[in-house]
């Protein structure tokens, strides 16, 4: 099918490769505003989706209306996610006001139930600008709006420093991607926020918006307590959702983390060795451009900058790029054929370490190291990179078959981790299930898929003690289904 063209004001934009028309509808000259529907890019500045909406608004002489909504039936909705998201959304509204752009929010709940709100907002919009996200609910919600609404819908990549469309198609390996990305990077480092020529939209709305900008923490807590979501999963004390937390992390990154990044990053007993920026990147409270600008302005040695850039830019953006090429990035089918064949060949092998889903969720298995990993997801909503590798590979031995292992890994990651439901989630899980090169030993359960032991972790000074203490952390008790849901993200019956 021919790709529809983006409207002329965006074609001339230097960031045009970020933009994709999701339908062929023309701009409505009699629209009241340009609607910018944000789902994950919850930041006011350095936000190409808002900039694209402003450019369209300026060309049409219209204001921009930024909308962010949060539903109770968002997959895995819990106090943890709602608190992070609403904290970020509060700052988004304040930031939009500072830019002279109206931002309205809706927290769906019994006494303020709204159905099809985005469609109603789109009915009087000159165009809808939304985020081009390749995974989880955002991608099919965007497609559905584009096919059902009469408004022009334009998707804008706000997640990557280099938009995937600016790179060649068909890049097949991380090494090739690294080369292309490194060559393209410089052209995408700088940006300047667009200025809205019209004042903030203050016309009629089809609903009563929530005024999160002025909400105190206690107001957010009370609102969340009143919702029909999973209250057993508390907000993360380690990762509050706000722009202030991003600023703290950026300062810590340049002053403390990066000078020793190459060494410290691999040691889970030193959580200060990593940036803990991943939840803020997933929910777009910060974008990679701003992170890289902070690093460039610092005195961090080039070697450490490069190591970090390899994680933030090569690996993270590789998984975004790759997800774009897959119809269902969350699916087990993305595990390479050779690895799936190995795992299937061993699917009937005895699994003496099989654990119940309850034991897995709560980090109460017979494997102390695995429990130490899982407690980070359960209690903190984040896990150290080194632990994630062991954690994911071990799930193959702890579940009845490889498909259930995949569903379980996605379920644990996505239900608990604030950075879950991301292209990096499924890309890294695919790596753990066999994206890396085949090993030489044909192992029970794994075949030639490489597994991991906890030997190296335990051998570090204090490693065994750290694992024991981490595995014994106090934890909440959650309601757990009999089996992991296979693809809760694809439930297209959920209205927007
Ligand atoms: C099995 C498994 C599952 C994972 N699931 C997720 C996930 O759900 N969401 C997620 O964002 N990352 C995931 N990762 C990647 C990585 O573990 C986390 O991004 C990292 O631990 C986050 O902590 P940090 O922000 O302190 O990382 P830092 O070391 O400070 O790195 C900075 C940033 O670089 C990016 N990055 C680092 N490592 C990777 C990587 N391997 N792949 C992609 N991007 C990377 C992240 O955006 C991260 O925030 C997973 C890795 C594995 C092995």
From TrEMBL:
Keyword annotations from UniProtKB, A to Z: Lyase
Domain Photolyase/cryptochrome alpha/beta: 32-161
Lyase found in the keyword field: yes
InterPro entries in the record: Crypto/Photolyase_FAD-like_sf, Crypto/Photolyase_N_sf, DNA_photolyase_N, Photolyase_Class-2, Rossmann-like_a/b/a_fold
GO MF terms held by the record: deoxyribodipyrimidine photo-lyase activity
Coiled coil: none
Reported cofactor(s): (6R)-5,10-methylene-5,6,7,8-tetrahydrofolate
Stored Gene3D superfamilies: 1.25.40.80, DNA Cyclobutane Dipyrimidine Photolyase, subunit A, domain 3, HUPs
GO biological process: one example: photoreactive repair
Pfam family, one: DNA_photolyase
PANTHER family: DEOXYRIBODIPYRIMIDINE PHOTO-LYASE, DEOXYRIBODIPYRIMIDINE PHOTOLYASE
Protein name, entry field: DNA photolyase
The organism's taxonomic lineage, starting at the top: Bacteria, Pseudomonadati, Pseudomonadota, Alphaproteobacteria, Sphingomonadales
